[in-house]
Design a protein that fits this description.
Helix content is 25%, strand content 30%. By secondary structure, it is α/β, with parallel strands linked by helices. The protein has a single domain, classed as Ribonuclease Z/Hydroxyacylglutathione hydrolase-like (Metallo-beta-lactamase, Chain A). The chain has a 7-stranded mixed beta sheet. Helix 5 links the parallel strand 11 and strand 12. The radius of gyration is 21 Å and the shape is globular. The model has no long low-confidence stretch (mean pLDDT 96). It binds zinc ion (2 copies). One zinc ion binds next to loops.
Length: 280
Protein backbone atom coordinates (compact mmCIF):
# COMPACT_ATOMS: atom_id res chain seq x y z
CA UNK A 1 0.00 0.00 0.00
CA UNK A 2 1.21 3.51 -0.80
CA UNK A 3 1.39 5.79 2.22
CA UNK A 4 2.14 9.45 1.64
CA UNK A 5 3.82 10.34 4.95
CA UNK A 6 6.44 12.86 3.73
CA UNK A 7 6.14 15.82 1.34
CA UNK A 8 8.77 14.64 -1.14
CA UNK A 9 9.64 16.38 -4.40
CA UNK A 10 10.66 14.59 -7.57
CA UNK A 11 12.74 15.47 -10.63
CA UNK A 12 13.85 13.34 -13.58
CA UNK A 13 17.14 14.02 -15.35
CA UNK A 14 18.80 11.86 -18.00
CA UNK A 15 17.00 8.70 -16.92
CA UNK A 16 17.52 9.15 -13.17
CA UNK A 17 14.60 9.99 -10.89
CA UNK A 18 15.66 12.10 -7.92
CA UNK A 19 13.15 12.06 -5.08
CA UNK A 20 13.53 13.50 -1.65
CA UNK A 21 12.98 16.08 1.02
CA UNK A 22 15.70 18.29 2.47
CA UNK A 23 15.55 21.18 4.93
CA UNK A 24 18.29 21.97 7.46
CA UNK A 25 17.50 20.86 11.01
CA UNK A 26 14.23 19.30 9.77
CA UNK A 27 15.09 16.22 7.75
CA UNK A 28 16.92 15.05 4.64
CA UNK A 29 16.32 11.90 2.60
CA UNK A 30 16.91 11.01 -1.06
CA UNK A 31 16.10 8.12 -3.36
CA UNK A 32 17.42 7.41 -6.85
CA UNK A 33 15.23 4.54 -7.90
CA UNK A 34 17.11 3.59 -11.08
CA UNK A 35 20.33 3.22 -9.04
CA UNK A 36 18.42 1.40 -6.26
CA UNK A 37 20.07 3.70 -3.73
CA UNK A 38 18.96 5.80 -0.78
CA UNK A 39 20.95 8.67 0.70
CA UNK A 40 20.34 9.82 4.29
CA UNK A 41 17.45 8.93 6.53
CA UNK A 42 16.47 11.98 8.57
CA UNK A 43 12.97 10.78 7.76
CA UNK A 44 11.77 7.58 6.15
CA UNK A 45 9.14 7.94 3.44
CA UNK A 46 7.07 4.76 3.56
CA UNK A 47 7.56 4.06 -0.12
CA UNK A 48 11.37 4.28 0.13
CA UNK A 49 11.61 1.16 2.30
CA UNK A 50 11.76 -1.17 -0.71
CA UNK A 51 15.25 0.11 -1.59
CA UNK A 52 17.79 -2.17 0.15
CA UNK A 53 20.95 -0.04 0.08
CA UNK A 54 21.56 3.26 1.87
CA UNK A 55 24.43 5.69 2.20
CA UNK A 56 24.40 8.04 5.21
CA UNK A 57 26.48 11.22 4.92
CA UNK A 58 26.78 11.97 8.64
CA UNK A 59 25.17 11.34 11.98
CA UNK A 60 23.33 14.63 12.59
CA UNK A 61 19.73 13.94 13.58
CA UNK A 62 18.24 15.52 10.44
CA UNK A 63 20.14 12.90 8.40
CA UNK A 64 19.98 9.74 10.52
CA UNK A 65 17.04 9.95 12.97
CA UNK A 66 14.76 7.56 11.07
CA UNK A 67 17.32 4.77 10.70
CA UNK A 68 15.49 2.51 13.22
CA UNK A 69 12.21 3.05 11.35
CA UNK A 70 13.82 2.03 8.04
CA UNK A 71 15.41 -1.13 9.45
CA UNK A 72 12.36 -2.12 11.44
CA UNK A 73 9.83 -1.49 8.65
CA UNK A 74 11.82 -3.68 6.25
CA UNK A 75 11.79 -6.47 8.79
CA UNK A 76 8.04 -6.09 9.40
CA UNK A 77 7.40 -6.24 5.65
CA UNK A 78 9.57 -9.38 5.40
CA UNK A 79 12.21 -7.73 3.19
CA UNK A 80 15.89 -8.67 3.32
CA UNK A 81 18.05 -6.87 5.90
CA UNK A 82 19.33 -3.63 4.32
CA UNK A 83 22.99 -2.72 3.87
CA UNK A 84 23.71 0.71 5.32
CA UNK A 85 26.96 2.55 4.64
CA UNK A 86 27.98 5.39 6.93
CA UNK A 87 31.09 7.21 8.22
CA UNK A 88 33.27 4.70 10.01
CA UNK A 89 33.34 6.70 13.24
CA UNK A 90 29.53 6.55 13.51
CA UNK A 91 29.11 2.78 13.10
CA UNK A 92 29.44 1.70 16.75
CA UNK A 93 27.07 4.34 18.09
CA UNK A 94 24.54 3.71 15.32
CA UNK A 95 24.64 0.01 16.17
CA UNK A 96 24.09 0.83 19.86
CA UNK A 97 21.17 3.07 18.94
CA UNK A 98 19.55 0.24 16.98
CA UNK A 99 20.07 -2.16 19.89
CA UNK A 100 18.52 0.40 22.27
CA UNK A 101 15.48 0.60 20.03
CA UNK A 102 15.41 -3.18 19.96
CA UNK A 103 15.10 -3.15 23.75
CA UNK A 104 12.41 -0.47 23.70
CA UNK A 105 10.43 -1.87 20.80
CA UNK A 106 11.04 -5.61 21.35
CA UNK A 107 11.56 -5.99 17.60
CA UNK A 108 14.74 -7.24 15.93
CA UNK A 109 16.83 -4.78 13.90
CA UNK A 110 18.38 -6.92 11.18
CA UNK A 111 20.80 -4.93 9.03
CA UNK A 112 24.41 -4.65 8.03
CA UNK A 113 26.26 -1.45 8.97
CA UNK A 114 29.40 -0.81 6.94
CA UNK A 115 31.89 1.90 7.90
CA UNK A 116 33.35 4.11 5.17
CA UNK A 117 36.51 6.20 5.04
CA UNK A 118 37.71 8.87 2.63
CA UNK A 119 38.42 7.35 -0.79
CA UNK A 120 36.57 4.07 -0.24
CA UNK A 121 34.89 2.58 -3.29
CA UNK A 122 31.77 0.44 -2.95
CA UNK A 123 30.56 -1.68 -5.86
CA UNK A 124 26.81 -1.61 -6.42
CA UNK A 125 25.92 -4.45 -8.76
CA UNK A 126 28.02 -4.82 -11.91
CA UNK A 127 27.34 -1.40 -13.28
CA UNK A 128 27.98 1.15 -10.54
CA UNK A 129 30.59 2.07 -7.95
CA UNK A 130 30.11 4.62 -5.17
CA UNK A 131 33.12 6.62 -4.05
CA UNK A 132 33.12 8.21 -0.58
CA UNK A 133 34.93 11.45 0.10
CA UNK A 134 35.53 13.47 3.24
CA UNK A 135 33.68 16.77 3.20
CA UNK A 136 33.87 19.59 5.74
CA UNK A 137 31.26 19.70 8.47
CA UNK A 138 31.14 19.94 12.28
CA UNK A 139 31.32 16.13 12.67
CA UNK A 140 32.76 13.39 10.42
CA UNK A 141 30.87 13.66 7.15
CA UNK A 142 31.11 12.07 3.72
CA UNK A 143 29.96 12.99 0.25
CA UNK A 144 29.36 10.37 -2.43
CA UNK A 145 29.85 10.05 -6.18
CA UNK A 146 28.15 7.30 -8.14
CA UNK A 147 30.15 6.21 -11.19
CA UNK A 148 28.68 4.16 -13.98
CA UNK A 149 31.22 1.65 -15.24
CA UNK A 150 31.20 1.34 -19.01
CA UNK A 151 33.32 -1.19 -20.85
CA UNK A 152 34.73 0.20 -24.08
CA UNK A 153 36.57 -1.78 -26.73
CA UNK A 154 40.29 -0.92 -26.68
CA UNK A 155 41.20 1.33 -29.65
CA UNK A 156 43.52 -1.29 -31.20
CA UNK A 157 40.54 -3.66 -31.65
CA UNK A 158 38.05 -1.12 -33.02
CA UNK A 159 38.57 -2.09 -36.68
CA UNK A 160 38.51 -5.87 -36.18
CA UNK A 161 35.53 -7.88 -37.46
CA UNK A 162 33.17 -9.29 -34.87
CA UNK A 163 34.36 -12.89 -35.14
CA UNK A 164 38.01 -11.89 -34.52
CA UNK A 165 36.94 -9.99 -31.43
CA UNK A 166 34.98 -13.02 -30.27
CA UNK A 167 38.05 -15.25 -30.79
CA UNK A 168 40.24 -12.88 -28.79
CA UNK A 169 37.66 -12.79 -26.03
CA UNK A 170 37.40 -16.60 -26.00
CA UNK A 171 41.21 -16.79 -25.75
CA UNK A 172 41.04 -14.69 -22.63
CA UNK A 173 42.45 -11.47 -24.06
CA UNK A 174 41.42 -8.31 -22.23
CA UNK A 175 39.77 -6.45 -25.11
CA UNK A 176 37.97 -3.71 -23.18
CA UNK A 177 38.94 -0.92 -20.81
CA UNK A 178 36.72 0.42 -18.09
CA UNK A 179 35.50 3.96 -18.34
CA UNK A 180 33.86 5.59 -15.38
CA UNK A 181 31.16 8.18 -15.89
CA UNK A 182 30.13 10.17 -12.80
CA UNK A 183 26.35 10.13 -13.11
CA UNK A 184 25.27 11.28 -9.66
CA UNK A 185 26.86 12.99 -6.66
CA UNK A 186 25.70 14.07 -3.24
CA UNK A 187 27.77 16.29 -0.96
CA UNK A 188 25.71 15.99 2.23
CA UNK A 189 26.32 18.91 4.63
CA UNK A 190 29.57 20.75 4.01
CA UNK A 191 31.34 24.07 3.88
CA UNK A 192 32.75 25.05 0.44
CA UNK A 193 35.94 23.13 1.29
CA UNK A 194 34.01 19.91 0.72
CA UNK A 195 33.62 20.90 -2.93
CA UNK A 196 37.02 22.47 -3.40
CA UNK A 197 38.92 19.51 -1.90
CA UNK A 198 36.98 17.07 -4.11
CA UNK A 199 36.72 18.67 -7.57
CA UNK A 200 35.17 15.41 -8.86
CA UNK A 201 31.89 16.78 -7.52
CA UNK A 202 31.96 19.46 -10.22
CA UNK A 203 32.17 16.82 -12.97
CA UNK A 204 29.17 14.68 -12.06
CA UNK A 205 26.17 14.86 -14.40
CA UNK A 206 23.84 15.41 -11.45
CA UNK A 207 25.04 17.09 -8.26
CA UNK A 208 22.97 17.40 -5.12
CA UNK A 209 24.68 19.97 -2.96
CA UNK A 210 23.76 21.92 0.11
CA UNK A 211 22.68 25.54 -0.13
CA UNK A 212 21.68 26.19 3.46
CA UNK A 213 21.97 29.99 3.53
CA UNK A 214 21.04 32.68 1.04
CA UNK A 215 20.28 35.98 2.83
CA UNK A 216 22.89 38.68 2.09
CA UNK A 217 23.19 39.64 5.77
CA UNK A 218 24.19 36.16 6.94
CA UNK A 219 27.92 36.17 7.70
CA UNK A 220 29.80 33.65 5.63
CA UNK A 221 32.66 33.09 8.07
CA UNK A 222 30.11 31.90 10.62
CA UNK A 223 28.29 29.76 8.05
CA UNK A 224 31.54 28.06 7.01
CA UNK A 225 32.50 27.48 10.64
CA UNK A 226 29.24 25.57 11.07
CA UNK A 227 30.04 23.49 7.99
CA UNK A 228 27.53 24.96 5.57
CA UNK A 229 27.36 27.01 2.37
CA UNK A 230 25.88 30.31 1.25
CA UNK A 231 24.63 31.16 -2.23
CA UNK A 232 27.61 33.54 -2.61
CA UNK A 233 29.91 30.48 -2.36
CA UNK A 234 28.14 29.17 -5.47
CA UNK A 235 28.48 32.51 -7.24
CA UNK A 236 32.24 32.58 -6.62
CA UNK A 237 32.56 29.05 -8.03
CA UNK A 238 30.15 29.49 -10.93
CA UNK A 239 32.82 28.54 -13.50
CA UNK A 240 33.73 25.32 -11.68
CA UNK A 241 30.35 23.64 -12.02
CA UNK A 242 30.42 21.41 -15.10
CA UNK A 243 27.30 19.55 -13.97
CA UNK A 244 24.19 19.23 -16.15
CA UNK A 245 21.98 19.64 -13.09
CA UNK A 246 22.83 21.16 -9.70
CA UNK A 247 20.26 20.69 -6.96
CA UNK A 248 20.52 23.26 -4.16
CA UNK A 249 19.08 21.60 -1.08
CA UNK A 250 19.02 21.74 2.74
CA UNK A 251 17.74 25.34 2.94
CA UNK A 252 17.54 26.89 6.38
CA UNK A 253 14.10 27.13 7.99
CA UNK A 254 14.82 30.80 8.63
CA UNK A 255 13.66 31.48 5.08
CA UNK A 256 10.31 31.02 3.40
CA UNK A 257 10.36 29.41 -0.04
CA UNK A 258 9.64 32.80 -1.60
CA UNK A 259 12.58 34.39 0.23
CA UNK A 260 15.01 31.62 -0.81
CA UNK A 261 14.02 31.95 -4.46
CA UNK A 262 14.41 35.73 -4.28
CA UNK A 263 17.85 35.67 -2.58
CA UNK A 264 19.23 33.01 -4.91
CA UNK A 265 17.85 34.68 -8.03
CA UNK A 266 19.47 37.94 -6.92
CA UNK A 267 22.90 36.33 -6.33
CA UNK A 268 22.72 34.12 -9.43
CA UNK A 269 20.37 35.78 -11.96
CA UNK A 270 21.21 33.14 -14.60
CA UNK A 271 20.72 30.30 -12.06
CA UNK A 272 24.08 28.85 -13.26
CA UNK A 273 22.86 28.75 -16.88
CA UNK A 274 19.52 27.42 -15.65
CA UNK A 275 21.18 24.30 -14.32
CA UNK A 276 20.56 25.20 -10.67
CA UNK A 277 17.34 23.80 -9.27
CA UNK A 278 16.28 24.74 -5.76
CA UNK A 279 14.80 21.81 -3.85
CA UNK A 280 11.90 23.67 -2.25
ZN1 LIG B 1 21.78 18.76 7.91
ZN1 LIG C 1 24.76 18.30 9.53
Amino acid sequence: MMVDNIPILSHVHDGLTIEGYSRAAVQTCWRVNELKLLFDVGVQPWDFMGTPTMFISHAHLDHIAALPAYVSRRRMMKMDPPVIYLPDSAVDMAWKMLQTFRSLDRGAMPCELVGLLDGDETKIGREYVVKSMNVHHTIDALGFIVYQRRHKLKPEYLDLPGEKIRDLKMAGTEITTEQRVPVFAYTGDTSPKGLDNNPEFYESKILISELTFAAPEHRRSKIHKHGHMHVDDYRERADNFKNELIIGSHASTRYTDVQIRRFVKKALPGMLDDRLKLWI
